[in-house]
């Protein structure tokens, strides 16, 4: 498939990069990325992936746009308040780049539907705001052998890691199970600075792009943390022995997906 003159112009800053070129841009146009959560993390990730020309982007979220979302969820506008987030996101992404096919899932992701939803995608972005969803996404991606980017934000802090099947630990290798209810403050209780979503969500988009292109080093085997007040990034090496993990280990004890009790906006899992 040859790039059109309009595509050559649109993606010219990609094409001149030796790591991308026309061949890499065609890979992006042929790729499929699913974003679970159209909030503080999913919003910037979705916009940058759409701008980059990722050909198919799925976006899953059961919520409607609320006025309090607009402080950080930049894919939505004031006129979108009350509209399903997936619809608002789709409209913004398609207005930005008509090359992109946006598939929406206006539903809660749960153990009964997640495997069917993720099966056709090349890479998954976890943009959720609660621990039950993060463990569910991790376990489903491990079972389905799907690479994904985990991230979380709260206050002035954020973190992310990338899982690629067979290349490093999964989320459950590091965080064994969800914390007890009310053990960690929600971001409704603790707050979150709006731009934090942009920083961490954009890094998730970058991980997806690098994975599709097959360039650079992914955050497999590492947890990247960011403290905005100190303007400090830390790249922490994660345990390399995954044999005993309950889901990705040699003898997994978790063989069915679990729907843990949901709580809204549980933070980063630190």
Give a summary of the structure in a few sentences.
Helix content is 33%, strand content 17%. The protein is of the alpha/beta class. Strand 7 (222-227) and strand 8 (232-237) form a beta hairpin.
Chain-averaged pLDDT: 93
Low-confidence stretches: 265-270
- The SSE string, one letter per element, is HHHEHEHEHEHEEHHHEE
CATH architecture, please? Answer: 3-Layer(aba) Sandwich
The helix tally amounts to 10
Structural class: alpha/beta
CATH topological fold name: Rossmann fold
- Overall 3D geometry? globular
What share of the residues does DSSP label as strand, in percent? 15-25%
CATH superfamily: NAD(P)-binding Rossmann-like Domain
User: Main β-sheet, in a few words?
Assistant: 8 strands, mixed
Instruction: Order the strands across the largest sheet as they lie in space.
Output: 3-2-1-4-5-6-7-8
The total beta strand count reads 8
> Cα-atom Rg, whole angstroms?
18 Å
Whole-Å distance between the termini? Answer: 45 Å
What's the structural domain tally? 1
- Helix amount, in percent? 25-40%
CATH class: Alpha Beta
Q: How is this fold's topology laid out?
A:
Blueprint: H1 5-10, H2 12-15, H3 21-29, E1 32-36, H4 42-52, E2 56-60, H5 85-96, E3 101-105, H6 114-118, E4 123-126, H7 131-144, E5 148-154, E6 157-163, H8 171-174, H9 187-190, H10 194-213, E7 222-227, E8 232-237
Parallel strand pairs: 1-2, 1-4, 2-3, 4-5
Antiparallel strand pairs: 5-6, 6-7, 7-8
Helix pairs in contact: 4-5, 4-10
């Amino acid at each position: 498939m040859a790039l059109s003159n309009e595509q050559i112009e649109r993606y010219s800053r990609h094409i001149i990069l030796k790591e991308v070129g026309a061949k890499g841009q065609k890979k992006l146009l042929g790729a499929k990325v699913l974003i679970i959560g159209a909030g503080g993390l999913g919003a910037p990730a979705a916009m940058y992936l759409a701008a980059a020309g990722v050909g198919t982007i799925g976006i899953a979220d059961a919520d409607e746009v609320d006025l309090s979302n607009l402080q950080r969820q930049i894919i939505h506008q004031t006129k979108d308040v009350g509209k399903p987030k997936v619809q608002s996101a789709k409209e913004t992404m398609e207005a930005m780049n008509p090359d992109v096919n946006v598939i929406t899932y206006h539903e809660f992701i749960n153990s009964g539907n997640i495997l069917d939803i993720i099966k056709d995608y090349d890479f998954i972005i976890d943009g959720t705001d609660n621990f039950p969803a993060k463990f569910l996404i991790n376990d489903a991606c491990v079972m389905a052998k799907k690479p994904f980017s985990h991230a979380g934000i709260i206050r002035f802090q954020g973190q992310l890691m990338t899982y690629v099947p067979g290349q490093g630990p999964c989320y459950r290798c590091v965080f064994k199970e969800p914390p007890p209810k009310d053990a960690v403050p929600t971001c409704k209780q603790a707050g979150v600075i709006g731009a934090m979503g942009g920083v961490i969500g954009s890094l998730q988009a970058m991980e997806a792009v690098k994975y599709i292109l097959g360039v650079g080093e992914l955050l497999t085997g590492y947890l990247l943390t960011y403290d905005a007040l100190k303007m400090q990034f830390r790249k922490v090496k994660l345990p390399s022995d995954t044999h005993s993990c309950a889901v990705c280990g040699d003898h997994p004890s978790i063989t069915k997906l679990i729907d843990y009790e949901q709580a809204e906006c549980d933070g980063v899992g630190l």
